[in-house]
Specification:
By secondary structure, the chain is of the alpha/beta class. The chain has 34 helices and 17 strands.
């Protein structure tokens, strides 16, 4: 049907869908489709993309072909369309799950002109018999949903999408409408090119979700506790926790369940029945939290998800946007919290090492964008929207105040001169380097790439070496967002000057820079947080009382104080104030055995102290552990009982010897018996063992360094640690 401008779209909108008005860009898009123009729609999830092709399909002669990658979504849409018509055949799915009779019915309905929409997966469209059949029918247009699947730069690349253009041409030369919920400029360009619709009319809706609060926290060893604390503060609210591995999904779901929180796991390794059950529990509010891999969420339309937590940082900002976008669909509160450690990025890079070079490059470029988002100190919303090619006013824009950086701004300093240095280096290197090589040029760090272009011999090489690489990387990110630089799309990541950037070199104005957060590695794998975060203060007064009590018990039993409880355990008591046996067994390094043996007097002392000083106990700090590791612990206990060589135990679990000893120390210090005499007999003779045993009996502390100093090279660290395990086993447990 040819469209003249006067056509009333509101009548069919009301007739078919019951709506009185269009949402956002819908009306414009529909007019473009009805005019048989190639059309490209970029609209965030929940923006009403489906209507953009459903209404024109119902209003046009012939059948519209809708290409979609997700069978479940196709089915939902077909059911919905059938619900608005008396003809069941108004919409059909054509895929491999249909038998011959069903396929014949679909073909008949298309021939009879009943079917207005035919949903197909790209792999079905390739089939010769379908192509031959469709060639003989009237096709109104072809809609390609989730069009980002075409691009290797998209978060969900599907190789079968690449051939769509050729197949559509074979069927009929009709208008194409491409729709996507996520598209960076790079992906957009890719889609238009691959579909051969470079002249398409493009409609872009805003990607801003003004009701979402964005926050990134450092990921420490206590990330599980941090998650539990967060969930307990949002009790009764629905949330999704994303992890990268199935194993982690199971662990976190277990930890939450042990802490009386209603959580279920969801990943592709569960059977279909369980997945459906867990999904329904979440939708029906029989549980509050789903812990999931990214397999969850496609097609989940729960409007009142109040928080989305990323235990692991995702592989691209698009995935992050998609996943966080599942919060607050009803316009209410939505808290998006991501835990970030650079270690996780390195892990993802390792995974990529086996992939083809081209794929690795893409993967690295996408990861660097994620790093930029996590480490930036400017408005996270502004950073995210800039990535999608959208401007955002961080002062007056909708939702401007809703992110952790805006809420707790870092100090700014004038960086006008540095920006000039940066922009002139990009200009003088002929705009051919990516961020990393640009930074190397500024700080004067040679590499093969720079040498091949003879950059090190240039007068500007090392022009900014008074500042470190992190500073310049942060400045590049902020200058990109400010619009003085852009990333080349063809050779993605190469820095180019914009018109404004060129103007800035000649006529610089004030540029306030905030330095990025640094997430350094601290000791013991915990991560030093940025200075803003508050550190938890341990009750020093209580520590002294606990140490006195420990000393008293140690003297009575004739053992060194560390045998009763180690220092970290006392620190943890002064933080958590445990007043029952159950509380005590959640303290660091205290198992049930230890709690039973020495705990009574400590609990009594803490309870009196809490009473006398009117202390509010932080209940949320008492996080029960699942015993997730208990499988490993049980394995170690069983196999040391069987006198299996320690090296074999380590190997069978893929552990280094050092890691096995660490696990054994945890077992022994929490009060469980562990007999490794058989192993020590091979290492040390009786006299040597006695000498080390006597040392620990007299020692003030159980620190291995002190023991190494005492014996001055007679014994190595491994021998001393194993002897310490024997000592604690016999004396303390």
């Amino acid at each position: 049907m040819m469209m003249n401008e006067e056509i009333d779209l509101y009548k069919p909108l009301k007739k078919f869908f019951g709506f009185d008005k269009f949402k956002g860009l819908q009306e414009e898009v529909i007019k473009s489709v009805l005019q048989k123009k190639d059309t490209f729609v970029v609209m965030p999830t929940g923006g009403g993309k489906s209507l953009c092709y459903q209404l024109p399909a119902l209003m046009s002669d012939g059948t519209a072909i809708v290409v979609s990658p997700l069978i479940a979504l196709m089915k939902n849409q077909v059911d919905a369309i059938r619900g608005i018509s008396e003809h069941r055949g108004i919409a059909h799915v054509l895929n491999s799950s249909l038998n011959k009779t069903e396929v014949a019915q679909v073909k008949k309905d298309i021939e009879d002109g009943v079917t207005k929409m035919l949903y197909v997966a790209p792999e079905s469209l390739i089939k010769e018999e379908y192509v031959t059949f469709l060639r003989t029918q009237t096709i109104s247009f072809v809609a390609i949903d989730e069009a980002h699947c075409i691009s290797e730069w998209g978060h969900d690349f599907r190789p079968e999408y690449r051939n769509l253009r050729t197949i559509i041409k074979e069927i009929d030369d009709v208008a194409i409408i491409g729709l996507t919920a996520t598209a960076t400029e790079k992906v957009q360009e890719d889609i238009l090119k691959t579909l051969g619709i470079s002249d398409a009319k493009t409609f872009k809706a805003s990607f801003n979700r003004p009701n979402l609060f964005y926050e990134v926290r450092p990921k420490t060893q206590d990330v599980d506790k941090d998650i539990i604390r967060f969930v307990k503060q949002h009790i009764g609210k629905s949330g999704i926790i994303y992890c990268l591995s199935r194993k982690k999904v199971e662990e976190i779901a277990q930890v939450l369940q042990v802490n009386n929180l209603k959580a279920v796991p969801y990943h592709a390794g569960l059977d279909a029945k369980t997945r459906v059950k867990h999904q329904d529990m979440f939708l029906m509010e029989d549980c509050d939290i789903v812990v999931a891999t990214i397999a969850f969420g496609m097609g989940i339309d729960k409007p009142d998800v109040r928080f989305v937590i990323h235990h692991d940082i995702p592989k691209s900002l698009e995935s992050y946007y998609q996943e966080t976008g599942r919060a607050g669909r009803d316009g209410g509160e939505g808290h998006c919290l991501a835990f970030y450690a650079y270690k996780d990025i390195e892990k993802l890079e390792k995974f990529m090492a086996s992939k083809p070079i081209a794929e690795q490059e893409i993967g690295h470029a996408l990861l660097q964008e994620v790093v930029g988002y996590a480490e930036t100190s400017i408005s996270r919303r502004k950073y995210l929207l800039h990535y999608f090619g959208e401007e955002f006013d961080e002062i007056n824009g909708l939702g401007a105040a809703l992110d952790d950086n805006t809420k707790n701004p870092k100090q700014q300093h004038e960086a006008k001169n540095e920006v000039v240095k940066l922009l002139s280096v990009v200009r003088d290197t002929k705009e051919k380097y990516k961020s990393k090589d640009t930074v190397s040029t500024i700080i004067g760090r040679e590499n093969a790439m720079l040498s091949s272009h003879r950059t090190p011999s240039q007068p500007f090489f090392g022009i900014g070496k008074e500042k470190d690489a992190n500073y310049w990387t942060a400045l590049i990110r902020q200058v990109l967002v400010a619009g003085y630089l852009r990333k080349e799309i063809e050779q993605y990541g190469v820095l180019k000057l914009t018109k404004e950037g060129l103007g800035f070199i000649d006529n610089p104005s004030s540029f306030l820079m905030t330095e990025d957060h640094t997430y350094d590695e601290g000791n013991d794998n915990s991560i030093i947080t940025n200075t803003k975060s508050t550190t938890i203060v341990i009750d020093e007064k209580l520590i002294l009382l606990l140490k006195d009590l420990r000393k008293k018990i140690a003297v009575k039993l004739g053992v060194p104080p560390f045998v009763v409880f180690q220092d970290p355990s006392l620190d943890d008591m002064a933080l958590k104030y445990p007043v029952s046996m159950e509380d005590l067994s959640t303290v660091h390094g205290v198992g049930e055995g230890k709690a039973r043996k020495y705990g009574k007097e400590f609990i009594k002392l803490i309870a009196e102290y809490v009473d006398e000083n009117d202390i509010l106990r932080p209940d949320d700090l008492i996080v029960k552990s699942t015993g997730v590791k208990s499988g490993l612990k049980l394995y170690i206990i069983q196999n040391t009982d069987r006198k299996l060589p320690l090296i074999d135990i380590a190997k069978s679990k893929g552990l280094e010897m050092n890691a096995l000893i660490k696990e054994m120390e945890v077992i022994i210090y929490s009060g469980t018996k562990l007999n490794i005499d058989y192993s020590l007999e091979d290492l040390l003779d009786e006299d040597q063992q006695e000498e080390i045993f006597d040392y620990f009996m007299e020692a003030e502390t159980d620190k291995i360094q002190d023991a190494l100093d005492e014996f001055d090279g007679d014994y190595d660290e491994e021998e001393l640690r194993l002897m310490r395990i024997k000592f604690i086993n016999e004396v303390a447990n």
